[in-house]
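This section describes the prediction task in plain terms. A model, or a person checking by hand, is given the sequence of a single protein chain and must write out its three-dimensional structure as a string of tokens. No templates, partner chains or ligands are provided. The sample shown here is typical of the held-out split.
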Amino acid sequence: MFKSLYAKVILLFLAIVVSILGLGYYVISTYLGNYLRDRVQEEMHRVAVSSIHLYNEMTDESFTLVLKGFFLPKSYFLNIYRFDGGQPVLVPMGSNATIDVDPSIVRAMFLNKQEYHGPAYPHYDPKDMSLTVLGVPFDHNGQPYAILLQQDFTNSVKFQINLTIVLLIFLLIGSVLLFFVSTKHLMKPLREMVRATRKVSKGDFEVKVAATRKDEVGMLAFHFNRMAGELKQIEQMRRDFVSNVSHEIQSPLTSIRGFSNALKNGLVQEEDRVRYYTIIHDESERLSRLCDNLLKLASLESDHHPFVLLTYPLDEQLRKVIIASEPLWARKEIDIRIQLEPAVITADQDQLFQVWKNLLDNSIKFTPQGGTVVVSLTRAGKQVRVSFMDSGPGIPADEIDKIFDRFYKADKSRNRKREGNGLGLAISKRIVDLHKGEIHAQNNETGAVFIVTVPVKP
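The expected answer:
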């Protein structure tokens, strides 16, 4: 339940609301408490001074009547003490309630002749205004007196609670509105991505979502767009792969079917039979090589391809590759130049042999009659660098990054009539990747150069 985004947002919202209300109540109650305490002190002192003035001007009976009638607010309790025989004595005030106060506090006022404003008993909480009293000593008819005031805070507390509740309600409404506005803004790109993922699931890889935000949602949108673009590219590669495979298979099958029908129906002259048989044989070999390369590439791209590491001299392996390809370069009278430094590496010997064979055959294929192919090996730190440089037509700049794709052929500059199915370089790149190396091609003044860099130890 709590794994969904909706539940998490709700829990986050509740936590925010509770935190805001708790903080708001604390701030408001603290502020109002301090405010009311200050106001109460001022008001009680004003009432005490006015009451002393009236008491000095009136008799006890008159003062009591005035006190009950209109002078003393209903929330106040007032007592008057006189100091008689070293002890404070309460002056009768009719039905006026007696304030519960520690006698020692009253006695201290008389002895010290100082005002007292604090709790009615020493052990009371000084912040509790309902337990606070104000005592002011004064002289009446030449005798020491003291007035004691206490206020009933029931109405004040109700006012404080009501005001706090109202303010908290406004805070709650404000936080709810802010939450919905922010959530709507936050969820908008997520809703767009949900709609976009539905389109992607149906094969529409043209979809894009806005990625203008700089937060995690913006990063998610950016990577979603990137993923959609890569899926589009993969889908296009899949279509091209199917199309190319169909073409590469259909072409030799068409030749084999055509020439075999001609031989079957006796439409071929005796002197042409050998040539027809040769064509059928060559096309069968071409079809067999295509199937072998497809199986090889599929095996390399799987997670279960055998990877046997051996430590061996790489320069000797390159010499063996050159010797194995001698019929190809000797037929075209190509000058093979080698620049090999001694180097020992740990790698899959058979797989790298396939890489060197593919690259050397590719260089021979595109080198003209009597041209030159240079094979070099150098060591740089923990890596070795192998290059194959031909004297062919080179590779167009806009196609140099595509030649390692499956079935890709640089047809414009490299004659498409040459043998090959466009899988050799793709297989080579995959093998180099498995060895955590790099392979790339570039042009120079005389032709193309293929450069492979692999670590001495993977």
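For orientation: The chain has three domains: 5-157, 216-301, 310-455.
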